[in-house]
Amino acid sequence: MVYPFVGIARSFLIGGFPSMANLILILGDQLTRNISALDNADKDRDLVVMAEVHEEASYTNHHKKKIVLLFSAMRHFARQLESDGWQVHYQAYHPDNEHQSLEAVVGEQVKQIIAKSVITTECGEWRLHEQISGWHERLGVPVEIRPDSRFIATKQEFADWAEGRKQLRMEFFYREMRRKTGLLMTSDGEPEGGQWNFDADNRKKWTGKPPAPAPFRIEPDAITQEVIALVDEHFSDHFGTTDDFHFAVTAEDAQAALEHFIDYALPCFGDYQDAISDNEDWLFHSILSPYINSGLLDPVAVCEAAAQAWYSGRAPINAVEGFVRQILGWREFVRGIYWMNMPGYAKENRLGNTRALPWFYWTGDTKMRCMHKAIDATRRNAYAHHIQRLMVTGNFALLAGIKPEEICDWYLAVYADAYDWVELPNVLGMVMHADGGYLGSKPYAASGKYIQRMSDHCANCHYKVNKATEDDACPFNALYWHFIDRHRDDFAKNPRMGMMYRNWDKQKPEKREALLQRAEYLLANVEQL
Ligand code: FAD
Ligand code: SF4
To answer: Which residues are the signal sequence here (predicted)?
Structure first.
């Protein structure tokens, strides 16, 4: 099927481009008219290039819904640019396309229009950044890479903040971002509500009340349906399903998703931020990360909308501050860590893990109820909320000593919001503690008790959370103590872990031995769990 604006941009048809035009490359996660690559561009002369290429769609086993979301959002965005008067060369995906990489597409267009220069905004991945950095030599044209002004801190600002600090703590960086933006700050420069952080109020278990709101839904339009058919045909071996696709694919619909969140979920976001449910996929989370990361929503505008809900009495401070902290704090912090430490960061494995990723991460076929539920939701939705990612699938990978690169690849593939700059620090750093502790002063390791406290999974599980060494004992329990025992050299001197080591050492030797044996058995038979 021919896509309406595939192929040759308008001015080719009226006699070719004036030479000395710029080629403006817009990537699939830069879908905003405010993207810096468009600053000072000339609609009449310059050519915007966007491309769905095999190399980007297939370098990992991206979830089918993620590909649908991005291709459809790109097509809608390109259309908007055209209707705003821009000249757009758009390559729609086809496995037989002559040009299967961004470099090939850009190289061809540079020749076609005899481009004066290529202009783009910095991308979100070291791999692509390296490629683009070499284009001026390989394509023989100047390449201007502009800073991504959608982030609150520049890469340099983060590096300056980090310089000379013994430990990087998100909380202190977050305060800087609050001061810089003025978000949730009084006119005297104090934090609203008298505290910087209300996390202590945000740890409630959810027992079904108040009911969790239905997620925001947009029914697929003709463009999205066409992309769904394309993905089903050409990406059938990728993870997940396109069934029940209901993500927004335009800025207008993403804005409606934000408003839906503010009206229905934000008031309880804080209280149940750490909760997990056996039958609710989304709880009170915003489900906005796919839109923020792809450019459909602006992160500061999202925070401002949340802050406004507090000022107007529609949401409590613990919810609003907790939400703003995720974006202003964590999101900016992980990006800073990524760019400050790449490319070496991706190879870190300070805990020396060697185990392969169990196959059930791809199938959800495990008797561990919490894991099954998190993976099944991931397969259906290309989404799991933060605590499922951190304390269920992440926690298991940490306790079982999975190789960081394998678990990182999994997270990069399976979520609609996954991009290297945000996935890698969260997984390699926050979950796997493979970087020595930039993202957490102690590993987020937990036994089944934590999952029992925060969820209602355990009552429905094949395993018994109150048992530790028996055949039907919760695997998280013995694996937790095995983790503590095998990493004594790494953590015994950590002040936040001392209590764990004292508890472990206090247990009778035969109990310790039984726990370690049970864990060894589980690790040897991990595929059967
Ligand atoms: P909410 O819970 O509603 O939070 C609001 C917003 O805060 C999110 O939309 C997101 O923009 C931001 N945010 C929250 N936590 C983080 C964080 N730790 N890092 C960066 N931003 C954050 N987030 C991604 O965007 N892409 C990823 O690939 C990704 N991988 C993750 C992997 C692991 C192992 C973990 C523990 C977390 C990961 N996160 C990732 C962070 C977080 O889990 C998701 O941003 C969040 O679950 C997205 O859902 P939401 O929009 O409903 O978030
Ligand atoms: Fe998960 Fe263990 Fe609870 Fe089962 S018993 S749901 S494996 S924590």
So the answer is: none
